[in-house]
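Records of this kind hold a single protein each, on a pair of labelled lines. With that in mind, the following record should read easily:
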Amino acid sequence: MAQTKNALIRQRVLDRCLRSPRQYSLMDMMEKCNDALEQAGYNPVSSKNTILEDLRGIESNFPEAEIVKRKSGRFIYYEYADKTFSIYNIPLDDDGMAKLAQTIAILSKFEGLPNFDWVDDMIEHFKSTLNIPTTKESVVSFDENIYLRNRDYFSRLFSAIVSEQALVITYKPFGKDAITYIFHPYFLKQYNNRWFLFGCVEGRTNLSNFPLDRIESIENADTSYRPNTEFEFNEIFEDVVGVSHLTDGPETIQILVDALTYDYIQSKPILPTQKPIARTEDTTTIEIKTVINRELIQLLLSFGSGVTVLKPQRLVDAIERELSLSLQKYQSVQLNCTDGM
């Protein structure tokens, strides 16, 4: 990363030299670059060949940049054929610059991830080349768990999916022994600040998922990769809460919602299939079609007394069991507190 910033500093200095009325030789430009590098805390350049490579890089990256050599006595000077040209002159208005700055802020979410150094390089290049101002304080925040175990596996798995590489994955479920699989990775999804890997285990056709924080190790497999020809993940997740029981058949679920909670649920629907089917002055009954899984139950419980599941009965029973267990535990806490008085 330091090397990228070093090169961008030299590029900015060289651009100024090439369009300056004054003439600059390679040695002159190297001295100017070193002044800027030392001021920024970087080591100076020790070879004129580095400056020559930088000039070639400017011509390669910016086809409109025409650099000419002019000999004067025993010296050779370098300059733009058009002294009004600069690689930093870009046809963007304020609105375009603002949108580009927003894009860079989003890309910055990938900064620091292993094997995503190209994102770091691109961000630094944009900031330098386009003169985009940076602020010390962030004005946008995304949900992120920076302490998530195995977060560094993301880029490895991303590359395996893109390059269609089968993997040997050792996976350790909670409370169980580790198991090793040959796995064909297809998709990565974030849910509730955890990352999940989806794909197929060798010899099986059903869809499996592994939370990244439960993966013990990853190695490339010698097995030929089996491409995904069956699963449309965007469609799968459109009608499911969470990441489990994805291929189960959806069920029609009816939920009674009080007025205050409905304002929230209406502004942030549980699923796209959500629709109101009955209303009173104090309540609204909504209907969704989805699979019943642990994540759905947890979401419905998060609304507290603001929602009541009406059907199907097995979901009503599951919610009732959870509430009953919670009530028993809180009653136990209350008894313990009373005994200690």
